[in-house]
Amino acid sequence: MLAVLASVKTRDVFWHFVPWLKVVWYVLAVGSVFVFAYGVARPLVKHRRGKGGPWPPVPWRELPGRLAGGLRLLLSHRTIGRRSHAVGWAHRGIFYGWIVLFAGTVVLGFETDFTDPVFGWKYFHGNFYLGYKEALNVFGTALVAGVLVMMVRRALHPPRLDYDRPDRAPDDPQFDRRTYRVGDWVFVGTLLVIALTGFVLEGVRIAMSTPGYGGTQFGGWIIAQALTGVSAPVLAGLRHGLWWFHGLLAIVFVAAIPYTKAAHMLTSYVSLSLRDPLAGKRLRAIPPERASEPAGYGTLADFSPLHLLHLDACTKCGRCHVACPANATGRPLSPRDVVLELREQSNNAFSSVGIGGVLGALVDGQADGGGFKTSVIGEDGVRTETVWSCMQCNACVEACPVGIEQAPIINQLRRRLVEEGELDPNLQSTLQVIHKSGNSFGENKRRRGRWAKELDFEIPDARKQPVDVLWFVGDYASFDPRSQQISQGLARLLHQAGVDFGILYDGERNSGNDVRRVGEEGLFETLAEQNIDTLSGCEFDRIITTDPHSLNTLRNEYPALGGSWRVAHHTTLLLELLREGKLEPARALGHRVTYHDPCHLGRFNGEYDNPRRILELLGCTLVEMPRNRDNSFCCGAGGGRIWIPDKPGQERPSENRIHEAVSLPDIQYFVVACPKDVTMYEDAIKTSGNADHIELRELTELVAEALVPAGEPVGAGG
Amino acid sequence: MSGVLVVAEARRGELRDVSLELISAALSVKDQAGGRVAVAVIDQQPDRFVDQLAVDGVDEVLLVPTPTEHFEAHVAGRALTELIAAESPSLVLLGFTIDSLGFAPAVAAKQGLGFASDAISLGWDGGPIVARGAYGDKLVSELEFPGKETTVVLLRAGGFEPAQAGGAAPATRTVELSLDGVAKTEHLGFQEAESADVDITKSEFLLSIGRGVEDKDNIPRFEELAEKLGATLSSSRPLVDAGWMPSARQVGQSGKTVKPRVYLALGISGAVQHLAGMRTAETIIAVNTDPEAPIFGVATYGAVADMFELADELEQQF
Amino acid sequence: MKIVVPVKQVAALDDEFELLDDGSGVDPDFLEFDLNEWDAFSLEVALQLREASDDGSEVVAVTVGDEESEEALLSCLAKGADRAVRVSDDDLATDDPLTVARVLAAAVERESADLVLCGVQSSDAVNGATGVALAGYLDLPHVAVVKALEHENGSVVVDRELEGGLVERLRIGLPALLTIQTGINQPRYANLRAIKQAREKPLDVVEAGELGLDQDALAAAAGSRRRGLSPPDRGEGAEMMSGGVDEMAARIAEIVRERMSG
């Protein structure tokens, strides 16, 4: 029965159209494709005005694999659903709804414009048509549902969709990004109207013909029921009107894709495909061909084409805005606003380039930089205090669903500021001190190994004898009095466990991780070269570091400078020793603790579990803070911020974090695994008035405590 | 070649205190130096200070009138050169002051004299010997001047008790020198220290802050603390250089020399130039995170602590 | 305008140091070297004057010292000095200001500078005399301890910083020598890339002998001779407080009350 019915079921695309109207339609449709194509070509030309890197950013032969990988990410929506399931599903609805409806139109157009006129073959009837209608109904509904979810979210006005700029005062005309809010509403509104008019059109069609199969097109059918009793001429007029309205809107929408928020359909995919897995973890060296130019980004022409693409890929979703510790503590920085500011600048700078310019550039290669030569940093651009507010904690890069490199872009801006001497005087003197003495404390280098002199055994000098484990101690663990105690504790544990380990004494230099993140690339290179030189002269199996910052740069950045070694964090080694029974807890500690993931250990190097397993082996109960693992909250020390004084009265990220910890019930210890965290949080516990509520412990201290049988004093042993 | 010539220092019609310290120093080596101490006053009206220089043991006051109203380095330099030629002293004493620094080294260089700057003590061993700091006062270097008939020494203020004036009126002699046209600079005016609303030299209790405050925005916090403690806020040079504190509140060699009952120094490491301005305070309490900070060398009491934490706690105490 | 900036590589002594066995000096292992703080300001004045003028001004940094002291010159070149000159003589007694001024005079004379800008003093020797002694040798008009400066054709108006915050404003014609006080400006940062690139800039090394200064001439110029070096008599030093910050604060409050009431 259905088959018989289906055999006659189809619809007339150009129902009651006079020929000239058809012509008008085709002219508009083709025009829309041209406008679209031009809109795609423009950014291709624009991005290549960036001279700061290669295009494409990966070798040609890797491109297919990258694009396939990007497609997998896109289809799975993994990056979008990651921090918000609701948004993930809503976006899936819109994405797949849009794809299927668009594909449906193409399928229909393929018959009308190609198979029918050329081969006389029509497939748009019968079961195919019914299945088609079903699919479009389902996905159209998903689209509408997704759009409605997004609209509700916007109506609820969450902070991340509020485009007020933290880097501008409220009375600044640039403070309020109202146009973005309007743009968002127009975008979701247009999608909704296109989808809904599709349904209404279908309903009118059904109402006019009242075909028996109406019941299966539930969307249209519902509307058809509502139109019962409306006279035929009215319906016909409505059908014509709606057809044009729906059609024109769709045509305009397609044409507008590259010029509006919808552009992310294209740019985000490319950005995701070209995503650098080490973004922010391994900052890029200055390309040799640019060695004689000023370092970093001062103008848009200095940007790499990939970073210019990133500016266009931003969907303004605000996840980086929410994740950013600077923004969360009232500093004048939102990674999103940096990206949007730069995007606006690049669009303005390119606005004078017309069709001729674009076509010419596509044919001849690149025209000159033009507006790309003006400074991007300044009162009206990205402000210096914004650039210096960043902690380079990579929370933004981690949160970004489309693979934008906010932190590395900010790092490039810093490189230029350092080159121009636009840096905080305190930071300036710290950098000078590091250059002169090799450490940020300005201590004589001979004092680096002094903490080890207070032990009752001697730590071998790894430069003079081969060792299994070379311990790269780091500045804080070597010079800060509190961290020195922890270093001594760790040394005792390693000694007790029979580990063959040594240190570099006065041969070690600041690892350069934070110096690089400050933007002092030349000093980073110098420090790295000195360390690599020293390490190359030593015999060892692997390196351990106490400092996650050192871990990161030794593991991820030294290889490019010729220093490739196995590098582990001390928590990894401690876990091994506990598991192998070389360290045996004498008791279960039974503490209720929370653990703070250091940015450079967790987010940068994916090491979330080892410290947690140690806590488990020690018999501690771990209560997680809401922001944990890859969403861990920076202590405020990163990116050289530890060397720049905070404004008084301003909440520090470390204090914000301690508030988070003490809001958990009955936590005894705030456990960390980074010497900078020790300094930052010991301070924050005091300054936030929580000294009576929570205490800080470095993981090593808990291990030492557990080795001592209950009742005996800790720290007296070995 | 014998005797000591002291060059007194005056500014805007007033004799500066360092002049009397120089006389004390000169008298301490008078006998070894040949038994004669003369004091030269190089000024537009040099005779106006004669009473103040009536110190027992001063043999003669040399009055050198200048055509310039205020100190002028080149005029002072020419006058000193000619005085040395005429008087042939074996030792010339000047203060380690801004004015002296402006001409004495040039005279010593050009005339091939013995020379020592910022001397902290003076002795005699066949000729003058002086002690002065080395490596930022971490060491003391002892200098001699072999083969020099005349030696110019700039003496750091605060090392000698000022001589007491009020003795018999000294013999005076006016030395007319041709100093017209010697000046190379044109005096355009004086400018008092900005916001000299407070005279830190008059305060009995100074709360003094240094580099440790880290940021301009931290200053108000210590202004409040000073008010609560009933102290006057002063500072070391770097904060003035940075524009965070008015120069009227600067303690030290280039700022004010203070002698309060209590000097509470927070986050001041104690550069030589700073110590020069406060070491004569009755009680010095120093707070610094660096246990090696030189200020602990002159302080009465020391605390190794973070100045912010200490400020918080101190606030509770008052 | 040609501006010559004499600079010094100063030595900072570590808190724990050892003297050479003969007491003549400090074991160099315990010294850390850096561009003299005051010279960073005088160089900055020179660079700003050059940047403000459009007559192709030149800034030349000059130092006296061994090869190590080229670090100071590299830092000047990195910040923007056009070229540098080092007068090398390893036997020079560089802690005597007159000797240094004599050598500098020979080097600076060849440059016929319009303006010579020195730091007021060096952080290690604190003589405050080298610049003005140099002016003496060169017969240049001079002003010491300048905390502000403005260039008007052919002359400069300077603020001379006197004790107690008093300032005297003067005009002095060019050529002249000024010694520059800290705080006059914000010296720029010499980044490491620039320091590396500065090695490409011209840096002349001349022997004191080539400038017509033999050992006798230098010995005659010396203003003093060091008899010995010894640790200072520090007195008793401070009575150090112990305990927590709260206890220290309480003790300080007690001392203050006692002394202020007495």
Gyration radius of chain C, to the nearest Å? 21 Å
Distance between the first and last residues' Cα of chain C? 62 Å
Distance between the termini of chain A: 90 Å
Q: Approximately how much helix is present in the residues of chain A?
A: 40-55%
Strand order in the sheet with the most strands of chain A: 2-1-3-4
Largest interface: B-C, 106 and 87 residues
Strand content of chain C: 25-35%
Stretches of chain A where pLDDT is under 50 for at least 5 consecutive residues are: 1-8
Q: What is the number of beta strands of chain C?
A: 13
Oligomeric state, counting identical vs distinct chains: heterotrimer
Mean pLDDT of chain C comes to 90
Order of helices and strands of chain C: EEEHEHEHEHEEEEHEHEEH
How would you sum up the major sheet of chain C? Answer: 9 strands, mixed
Rough outline of chain A: elongated
Sheet with most strands of chain A: 4 strands, parallel
Low-confidence sequence ranges of chain C: none
Q: Strand order within the widest sheet of chain C?
A: 9-8-7-10-6-1-4-5-11
| Number of distinct beta strands of chain A | 8
Secondary structure elements and pairings:
The complex is a heterotrimer of chains A (718), B (318) and C (262).
Chain A: H1 2-8, H2 19-47, H3 63-76, H4 78-81, H5 85-119, H6 126-156, H7 178-209, H8 218-226, H9 232-256, H10 264-273, H11 305-313, H12 319-323, H13 325-328, H14 335-350, H15 355-364, H16 384-389, H17 395-399, H18 406-419, H19 425-437, H20 450-453, E1 467-472, H21 475-479, H22 481-496, E2 501-503, H23 513-518, H24 521-536, E3 540-545, H25 548-557, E4 567-569, H26 570-579, E5 592-595, H27 609-617, E6 621-622, H28 653-662, E7 669-672, H29 675-687, E8 695-698, H30 699-707
Parallel strand pairs in A: 1-2, 1-3, 3-4, 5-6, 5-7, 7-8
Helix pairs in contact in A: 1-6, 2-9, 2-15, 3-10, 5-6, 6-7, 7-8, 7-9, 10-11, 11-14, 22-30, 26-27
Chain B: E1 4-7, E2 10-11, E3 14-15, H1 18-28, E4 37-43, E5 60-65, H2 73-87, E6 91-95, H3 98-101, H4 104-111, E7 114-124, E8 128-134, E9 139-144, E10 151-155, E11 171-174, E12 185-191, E13 205-209, H5 219-229, E14 232-235, H6 237-241, E15 262-266, H7 272-278, E16 283-288, H8 295-298, E17 301-304, H9 307-317
Parallel strand pairs in B: 1-4, 1-6, 4-5, 5-11, 6-10, 7-10, 13-14, 13-15, 15-16, 16-17
Antiparallel strand pairs in B: 2-3, 7-8, 8-9
Chain C: E1 2-6, E2 9-13, E3 31-35, H1 37-52, E4 58-64, H2 70-79, E5 83-88, H3 97-109, E6 115-119, H4 130-138, E7 142-152, E8 155-161, E9 167-173, E10 176-180, H5 192-198, E11 203-207, H6 215-221, E12 225-230, E13 239-240, H7 245-261
Parallel strand pairs in C: 1-4, 1-6, 4-5, 5-11, 6-10, 7-10
Antiparallel strand pairs in C: 2-3, 7-8, 8-9
Helix pairs in contact in C: 2-5, 3-4
